[in-house]
Amino acid sequence: MMQRLALCTLLCATTAGAQNRAMPPESERQLARSIFEEMVEIKSGYTTGTTTPVAEAVARHLRAAGFPEADIFVGGASPGKANLVVRYRGTGRRRPILLLAHTDVVEAKREDWSMDPFTLTEKDGYFYGRGTGDDKAQAAVWIANLIRYKREGFKPDRDIIVALTADEEGGGPYNGVEWLLKNKRQLIDAELALNEGGWGESVNGTRLANDVQVSEKYVVNYRLEVHNKGGHSSLPVADNAIYHLAGALDRLARFGFPLKTNEVTRAYFRAMSNVEKGSVSADLSAVAAGDTAAMQRVAQASTAWNATLRTTCVATQLEAGHAKNALPQLAAASTVVCCPRIPSIT
After folding, report:
1. How far is it, in rounded angstroms, from Cα 58 to Cα 38?
2. Which of 15, 104, 121, 209 has a CA positioned 20 to 30 A from the CA of residue 332?
3. Is 47 within 8 Å of 80 (Cβ atoms)?
């Protein structure tokens, strides 16, 4: 979204020691937008796309801005899945900070979108396109700000390392941060790291708070399978793999894990009760105090709050059968279980 991009750019510019709290100069904003647009319009889908063109495009911008070749790395586990790491040199008085963002995106079919998912579209104050929020906006912000620091001669007390990774942040055992840790650890060794930036709270365009997430959901993928002896569709029987799977998924759809809080989420909802108004504010305060009825209302009011208050489980993919005129011998579904994300608010 435009608001998020502008907010992150403003925050990073302020970190650079800018005294003026206004938005960055128009030239810098246009630079951030052009890098953002270029990234969004590269098809870097997780399974069908490639992140290497994104890494190479960013490297070109950095070289043009005067970053030495020795401070730019492009590479990874495979030719199509390159990561980019760049170092902005500070005084070295303190150990580096690592800024992370990923350049792969969830697959997007054109027929599922009202507009081209790989064309950056600006409409009614928002940006539309695959990766505009997760996570090419943050990637563009990190890079645009590094270039601005270079132009202005900013000298932080530590090196600033930006790593734009393939295959989400972790990358599993073969790419992303995992690959960098195993193969290029010296490039990303740092005292602390910020991943994907964060988000904020606003009401009617007024920014009220910046959120910092202090932990991440732990994801477990399950595959549910129903096996059957099959048969011909002209002789149907009640013992049908698709029906059994559908029944299981219906029960899953109606199931909810228990609502609960911990020390961090209680602090978050207590702080949010001072941001929201009216009955929502009262409910958030009650959630922080452990009121289960208020938790239920808050979970129903917001998808994000629901996921903050409980473990979630959702079906994401289905497959069944092998022919239109045959009873299925296998029906399967993929489900994703996520433990609660744990935000904090500042």
Report:
1. 9
2. 104
3. no
